[in-house]
């Protein structure tokens, strides 16, 4: 039984990816880490490349690449790089963790693998509390289709453990067919697609943040600073990673200290100086709000 970790990165996200890998190794993780390219702008960060195995898209089975093309046909404005996480289901590891780059490991990730003997997918997040608002244009329509508890199996597609399955292509194509029939319900992104695959395939999932485990939130924005994280790590439950979803962290928020764990003191201070300049000038508003909204408008979304 082989185990490994996958991430998808490019030159833009390589610093985050390098910090993620550093945090994993500092947590005692010795698992192989596969690096899938997000696009043609390949990572060049030496420490990142030294700790990972580059896995070009062409190295994955044609069957898996065809599924990605089919999803892209449904949602042509969705970045193909975001969909490449699904190549993990066709990779060399029997059991694997897929992780976004904007994540920091706070401990050994072995507990995410342990339940895979009885489950198809394991995660730890509080997406189930969002009532589907970030995955579906019409969450009520989803519950009418799959039952009132359908949204309780929602997950953050940026971090999960899973088993490789021989029928994964069949499961993905069920989701593709359903989306073709109900294009007005799901939002066009990877997270909705994975959730629909779970619902349509009857996959057995475990969310450590739900009862009876009740692990704490893994979303970094739920913590004011590093002290709050350190105190929450003491329990109850376990906090094994933080997810800084919502854009590239620049160090301005106090809880983002962990995002620069692999930096020297001088490097970290330079990042903080840049963050102070960006926020002091108001440029962060352009970057975080105005530009994303303009980009969505230009894409017709």
Number of strands: 9
**Helix-strand topology string:** EHEHEHHEEHEHEHHEHEHH
Helical content, roughly? 25-40%
CATH architecture of the largest domain: Alpha-Beta Complex
| Morphology | globular
When the domains are counted, the total is 2
Strands of the widest sheet, in order across it, are 3-2-1-4-7-6-8
Q: What value does the average pLDDT take?
A: 92
Strand content: 5-15%
Q: What is the rounded distance between the termini?
A: 43 Å
Uncertain spans, ≥5 residues at pLDDT below 50?
none
Q: Report the major sheet.
A: 7 strands, mixed
CATH superfamily membership of the largest domain: Spore Coat Polysaccharide Biosynthesis Protein SpsA, Chain A
> Helix- and strand-based class?
alpha/beta
The CATH topology label of the largest domain is: Spore Coat Polysaccharide Biosynthesis Protein SpsA, Chain A
Count of DSSP helices?
11
**Gyration radius, to the nearest Å?**
19 Å
The CATH class of the largest domain turns out to be Alpha Beta
Oligomeric form of this entry? single chain
């Amino acid at each position: 039984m082989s185990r490994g970790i996958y991430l998808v990165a490019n030159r833009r996200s390589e610093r985050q990816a390098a910090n993620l890998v550093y945090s994993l190794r500092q947590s005692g993780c010795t698992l192989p880490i596969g690096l899938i390219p997000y696009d043609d702008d390949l990572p060049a960060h030496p420490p990142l490349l030294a700790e990972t195995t580059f896995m070009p898209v062409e190295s994955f089975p044609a069957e898996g690449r065809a599924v990605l093309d089919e999803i892209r046909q449904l949602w042509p404005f969705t970045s193909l790089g975001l969909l490449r996480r699904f190549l993990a289901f066709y990779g060399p590891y029997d059991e694997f963790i897929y992780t976004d780059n904007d994540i920091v490991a706070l401990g050994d990730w072995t507990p995410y693998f342990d339940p895979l003997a009885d489950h198809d997918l394991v995660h730890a997040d509080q997406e189930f509390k969002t009532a589907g608002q970030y995955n579906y244009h019409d969450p009520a329509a989803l519950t009418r289709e799959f039952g009132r508890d359908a949204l309780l199996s929602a997950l953050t597609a940026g971090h999960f453990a899973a088993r490789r399955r021989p029928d994964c292509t069949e499961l993905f194509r069920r989701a593709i067919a359903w989306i073709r029939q109900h294009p007005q319900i799901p939002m066009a992104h990877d997270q909705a697609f994975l959730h629909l695959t779970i619902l349509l395939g009857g996959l057995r999932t475990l969310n450590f943040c739900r009862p009876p485990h009740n692990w704490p939130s893994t979303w970094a924005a739920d913590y004011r600073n590093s002290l709050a994280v350190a105190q929450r790590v003491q329990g109850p439950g376990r906090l094994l990673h933080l997810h800084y979803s919502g854009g590239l962290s620049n160090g301005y928020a106090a809880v983002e200290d962990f995002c620069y764990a692999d930096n020297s003191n001088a490097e970290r201070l330079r990042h903080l100086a840049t963050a102070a300049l960006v926020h002091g000038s108001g440029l962060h508003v352009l970057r975080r709000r105005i530009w994303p909204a303009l980009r969505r408008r230009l894409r017709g979304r």
